[in-house]
Structure formats: structure tokens, C-alpha cells
Amino acid sequence: MSKFYLLVIPIVIGIIAGSFLVFYPEPEDNSEKLTVSKLIENGSPVMGKNNAPITILEWGDYQCTFCYKFHQNTLDVINEDFIKTGKIKLVFKDFPLNGPDSLLAAEASYCAEDQGKYWQYHNELYKNWGGERTGWITRNSLDSFAITVNLDLDMFNKCLDEHKYQNKVNELYEFGREIGIDATPSFLVFNDEKIIKIRGNQPLEVFLKTFDEL
Predict the structure, then answer these.
(1) Once rounded to an integer, what is the mean pLDDT over residues 96-105?
(2) 3-state secondary structure of 190
(3) What CATH number corresponds to the domain at position 170?
(4) What is stated as this protein's family in its record (predicted)?
């Protein structure tokens, strides 16, 4: 990757907001971790075309309020205008800040991936979002979502019972911390030359500005 410049750009849209873009890397010792391959590997399946020139790496938690809002609003526009048109691809990585229920939901999404239905299950989780630490994520609710997306329930439950993907999710969380992720949602938007970090569920205009910058 070419040399990055550290720069903080305040964004003012309508009212004063605490949004910002950060050009990576933050500490120099992260440079080996902040390659395109390192950032994408071990995450979700790619949403969009693999050869899309820009990647959005979203760090999220299935109980996170602002993650839910991003998925219900901004992502729809990005998907229609940029992902489906081959300009951008999206990868999701778990950053379960809200405790064991978030960890379990993340595990369930990868159990669904075993049956080729990661994004269907991922979307079902956000469609049924019930708040932060309210108890809506249970084995029964996860089974219900699995039935809705037509998973083999026995296979799905075996995967959850064995905690097949618990280590994977924990490793994603630790990797996120190592590269400076500290809140959800957080986004690394990058091409082959530059990485821009967006922290929080910012207005669509912030993402559009970032796409233009890249």
C-alpha cells in the first residue's frame, strides 16, 4: 500500500455533529494488519462483486442500536446505488460489545453460513432487532430466525451447541481492538491505496464523501 496520511476531517451536516473521517494507519505498527487481504479475511462472505474497486468493512454488534439504524436506512441506499452496481462490496466483521447474547448471535450467523445463508440470516437478525441487552436473543429466537430462512434446524443447532464459531468471533473482536476499533458500528472504507475510517452511524452524505475521496 502507498503511504497513508493521518488526517481528521470534521463533517458538519445541517447541525454540528461529532462525526469524523480518519485516514489510516493510526499507529504505525498496524501497517502489516491494514492490508486489503488482512482486513477482508475471516469475515463474512462478500456482499457484492469480488472485483468491486472499493470495500466497506463494517464492524458491528447485532444488539447495537446504531448498527440496526444503519442497516435499516443507509445500507439500503448504498446497496441499491453502489453494491448492486458493482462499485462497492461489503464485508461484515463481528465486534460483540454487548455481551454473550451478541456473541451467540454472531456464532449463529456463521452457522447459517455453513448452509450458504449468511446474509439471509444476518438480515433476519437485524429485521428482528429488539434493543440492547433486552433478552431478545435466545436459542428459541435464533431457531425461529433459522426456520424463517429455511435452514436445516438440526444442523444449525448442532453448530451452536458445539460453539463451532465462538473462537472465530472472539478472534474478530480482538483483531478489531488491535487496529483501533472501539465502537459499533465502525467502518473501514478502502481501495488499494487508502483506508478511511468512519466511526458511528453517520449520515449517508459522509459515506458519499468517502466514496468520492477514494
Answers:
(1) 97
(2) strand
(3) 3.40.30.10
(4) Belongs to the glutaredoxin family. Belongs to the thioredoxin family. DsbA subfamily.
